[in-house]
Amino acid sequence: MEKPVSSSRPKVAIKGIRDGLLVTVDDAGAWEDAQEALLEAIGSQAEFFQGARVALDVGTRPLKAAQMGKLRDLLGDFGITLWAVVSESPKTQETARSLGMATRLSRPAPAPRRPAPSPAGEEALLVHRTLRSGMRIAFPGHVVVIGNVHPGAEIVAGGNIVVWGRLRGVAHAGADGNESAVVCALDLSPTQLRIAGRVATAPPRRGRPAPEMASVKDGQVVAEPWDGK
């Protein structure tokens, strides 16, 4: 999603991974613009990023040591540890290694003998921040947002989506095909709502907003009062 002020503004995507968070910045525009978009996204949800270990994917961008070092220092001001920079650019990879950072994301170690895993989507990501236009959260489990989700923001979850506030952006629950997933919000008025492969748009608001829960029933996405019953 792009902010309406600029169609070429670099996009920033945030995803939970095994080693912390993966932040991806696309290749659009100059690095200075990309860095500004990244810091703006982080600054708008600073509490969420506080103490986080972040891997940064910069695509094909060639970054110099001065640029990467400056970014590491700026992220450090937010309490963020930049431990890896992923890129298709050999120059960027060399720069990251020279600064003691990883250039690849680690893979989970095999564990042949362990208890059966929890059902898919049982892990949850808590976002204690309003999501503004241009922000995207993707997580394989549940996503819980304490704040509002503005138009132009997007949440993609393998499990449920719960918004303790107004949901005005795009919400896709059960993204891996789980039609039992639900989307709950104190004010459910999404631009688009998807559960698994089912798509629905919010009807015009009638009366005062009230907590609602959307789920798949008889092959359609329907919203009902969210009363905890």
Question: How is the secondary structure organized here?
Answer:
Elements: E1 12-17, E2 20-25, H1 31-43, H2 46-49, E3 53-57, H3 65-76, E4 81-86, H4 90-98, E5 124-127, E6 135-139, E7 142-145, E8 154-157, E9 161-167, E10 170-173, E11 183-188, E12 192-195, E13 198-200, E14 212-217, E15 220-225
Structural description of this entry:
It is a single chain. The protein is of the alpha/beta class and 229 residues long. It folds into 2 domains: 12-98, Transcription Regulator spoIIAA (2-Layer Sandwich); 124-225, Pectate Lyase C-like. It is 17% helix and 33% strand. It has 4 helices and 15 strands. It has helices at residues 31-43, 46-49, 65-76, 90-98, and strands at residues 12-17, 20-25, 53-57, 81-86, 124-127, 135-139, 142-145, 154-157, 161-167, 170-173, 183-188, 192-195, 198-200, 212-217, 220-225. The chain has a 9-stranded mixed β-sheet with strand order 4-3-2-1-6-8-10-12-13. Strands 5-7-9-11-14-15 form a 6-stranded mixed β-sheet, with no helix packed on it. β1 and β2 (20-25) form a beta hairpin. The chain is elongated and about 55 Å long. The protein starts with 11 loop residues before the first strand and ends with a strand.
